[in-house]
Structure formats: structure tokens, C-alpha cells
Amino acid sequence: MFFIAGVSPKRKKLDYYEPIMCNCCSKYGRYEGYMEYSVLSLFFIPLFKFNKKFYARTTCCNSLYLITNKEKGLMMERGQGHKVFLKEKDLKLIQKGISCSNICPSCGHYSKEEYKYCPNCGNKL
To answer: pLDDT tens digit string along 64-78?
Structure first.
């Protein structure tokens, strides 16, 4: 007799959307909720999930945040996302968005990363 068992990582998009004014790129966007977890399977049947981590990604610049408040993450997983409002203390920045590093702080113009001065207004980036 033999057993086929294994542990594998999974990712699930949660039904969570919250409109925001992004701290990174100063544009309007929204948070989208994600959950990463490990699952133990026996004969290809998932038995239980463990090591759950909850993330929020912005749609404006793709910045990625870890949701440090586990209770809010569990509410999003259960489908109660409409009751969850993320605050700055609930989030930890993991990865800054691609477009955050090339925005002029004076005029908000996008430019290439190698530029030292904004091509629109001439201020230092």
C-alpha cells in the first residue's frame, strides 16, 4: 500500500476592492486582495490550509503590501471584504511599484529612470 501526499503553495485572489489615493504614485487606484498559503494534500485531495499570508496590491502602480492585521485578512477570505477598510498601520510595503520611481514630485510627469531632471518642468527628480 502506498500514499501520495504533498505540500504545495497556492495563491488566491480575494473578492476585495477598496478605492484609494496611492501613497506611492499619488494617483487614484484601488487595493486588490490576495492570499498565499500552503496546502496539505492526500491523494490529490486538499486536506487543510496553513501558513496563510494576506496581501494588497495597488492597481495604479502595482505596489505590493503585506496585510499585517490577520483579522482583516481572514474577513476578506470569508467574503466579508465590504466590511474591511485598510489603514496605513495595517499595511507593510514589500515592493514599490514600477512607476513610483520615475514620477516628478513637482508636476507629476512620468519620465525614464535614467533622467536626473524632469523633461516637462526641469526640476530635479
So the answer is: 999 999 999 999 999
